[in-house]
Amino acid sequence: MGTTYSSLGLITRENQRYRVTVIVDRCKECGICISVCPTKVLVKSSVLNKYGYRPPEPAHIEKCIGCRLCEYNCPDFAIFVEVASK
Question: Which of 10, 23, 37, 55 is deepest in the core (most CB within 10 A)?
């Protein structure tokens, strides 16, 4: 259940219940998703996207409660939360 950096430009991580996916090249490092997360799941990644921005990374995925505030507040539609398949 580690972080996956796909060749498609996605950062994906999941816990027992939820999967968080970041579309790396859509992110403009505004930080809204990081600030609205009530359980502090997201941090800035050390990876740069093709525009030179650092997208969020679900570093503390075990804390994700699936509220989707990060997804709802992202102005660039760069982050998605799904129920993980069992």
Answer: 55
Cα(59)–Cα(43) distance, integer angstroms = 6
Alpha-carbon distance 74 to 17, whole Å? 22
Give 33-72 pLDDT, tens digit per residue. Answer: 999 999 999 999 998 999 999 999 999 999 999 999 999 9
Q: Measured between alpha carbons, how far is 23 from 40 in angstroms, rounded to an integer?
A: 19
Domains and CATH numbers, the chain: 4-83 (3.30.70.20)
What single-letter amino acid sits at 74? C
Q: How confident is the model at residue 1 (pLDDT cuts 50, 70, 90)?
A: very low
